[in-house]
Amino acid sequence: MSDDTPATQTLQVYPAAQFRATEGVAEGDAITFADDLVLDDIYQFAEGAERLAMVVMPTDEPTHFVVHDGSQRGTIGNDLYLDCCVTLIVPDSTTIEALVFVEVEDGEVADTYVLPLATPVPDTDYRLVGVDRHAATRRLSESACVSFTRGTHITLASGQQRVVEDLVVGDRVLTRDDGPQKVRWIGQTTLRAVGAFAPVVIKKGALFNDHDLVLSPDHRIFVYQRKDTLGAGRAEVLIKVRHLINNDTVFQRDGGFVDYFQLLFDEHQIVYAEGIAAESLLIDTRTRGALPDDISANRHRERQHNLYEVTESLVSAPDLVALLRRASSS
Fold first, then answer.
1. Given this model, what pLDDT does residue 145 score?
2. Half-sphere exposure of 62 toward its Cβ, with a 13 Å CA cutoff?
3. pLDDT in tens, 95-141
4. What is the Cα–Cα distance from 150 to 264, expressed in whole angstroms?
5. Cα angle vertex 171, ends 168, 175, to 5°?
C-alpha cells in the first residue's frame, strides 16, 4: 500500500437483497454485477430497507478495498470491488445513479451491495437504463472530494474573509499547521443535492460559527478539545460533518442543486471556513479520479491528520454538537 493511501473509509450501502428486480428478465433477483444486468429491468427497494455502514481500507487500486470492520456488514479481510455505476429512471423521468460493489471471499462472490447516489424511495419503480464500469470510479471519487459550497467565507493569510467562489489560484490562505499557504488548484462541480451529494448545514452559532457553514457530507472539521469529552485519547480530533446531524442545528439539505468547490494545497491542510477549522482536499486513491491529470499525478505525503479522525463508535452521542461545544470551550 502506497503512502498516499488513506485510512479507513465508510461506505453507506444497502445489501443487494434489499434492491430486487420486480419486472423483467431478472425478476425476483437482487441487483448484481454489470455482466449479469439487463437493461429495462425494473427494481424496487424493499420496505424498511436500511443503509448499513461498511468500513473498508482502500488499496492502491481505486476500485479495490478490503473490509476492515464487519460489525454492520461484510467479513473482515474480504476483498470488496467497485464493479459499476448504474443509471436508473423513476416514473417522473428523474434519473439517479447508484454504485454496485461486490464482496469476494476466497475467489467467490460473498455478497453484493448498492450505494445509491440519491435518497431511495420505497414502493417506487427504478428502471435500469444504463450500466457503466468506467463512470463508477469517477462518481466514487466525486463523492469522496471534500467540498465547500458557494458563499462559504474562507480566512485569508491577511485575516480577510473571502467567499470561496472568489478565490483564485495563488491566493494565500491561513492554515492551522503551516501558516499562510498558496492555493494550488480550485475545483468546481455542480451536482444534484441528493443522497451522498446532499450538503450538510451547520447552522449559525452551532459550533461558534458566525454564519451557516455548508459542507459536503464527508467533509471533516477539526475540533480541539480542552477536555477529552469524546474519549478519543487525544485533544485534537477530525469529525465528518454527517456525524453531527441532529436535524436541528445540523441537518442535511436534500433537494435541488449544489455548487461545490474544492481547495487544494501542496499539502493537506486545515483551513478556516466561517470560523470553523475544516480540511482541504486530500489527494489520495479515493479522490485522484476526480482530478485533472496534471493534478492527480501529484500526491500528498502522510500527515498526522488521518490519525485525528474519530472512530464511528465515538460519534454516537445523542447530540454530538452540544458535546463538542462543551469540549472545545470548557
1. 84
2. 21
3. 889 999 999 999 999 999 999 988 788 889 999 999 999 889 888 88
4. 16
5. 125
User: Looking at residue 302, what is its pLDDT?
Assistant: 65
What's the DSSP call for residue 195? Answer: G
According to DSSP, residue 30 is labeled B
Percent of the chain scoring above 90 in pLDDT: 56
The predicted model gives 243-263 an average pLDDT of: 92
Residue 85 pLDDT > 90, yes or no? yes
What is the Cα 223 distance to its own chain's centre? Answer: 19
Amino acid 236: pLDDT: 86
Beta carbons within 8 Å of 63's beta carbon, 6+ residues apart: 81, 82, 83, 136, 137
Total residue length of the chain: 330
Grid coordinates belonging to 32: 448484481
Structure confidence by residue, pLDDT tens digits, 197-231:
889 999 999 999 989 999 998 899 998 888 777 77
Cell representation of residue 327: 469540549
The residues near 141 (Cβ < 8 Å, ≥ 6 apart) are: 62, 286, 287, 288, 289, 290, 291
Amino acid in position 88: L
CA distances from 155 to 213, 278, 279, 328 (A): 13, 11, 13, 20
The position carrying cell 469476494 is 104
Q: Which of 113, 130, 100, 124 is nearest to 46 (CA)?
A: 124
CA 286, CA 165: separation in Å to the nearest integer? 24
Does 5 score more than 60 pLDDT? no
Q: Helix H segments across the chain?
A: 133-144, 293-296, 305-308, 320-329
In the block, residue with C-alpha cell 488499496: 59
103 CB burial (10 A radius; 0-12, 13-18, 19+)? buried
CA distance 274 to 211: 6
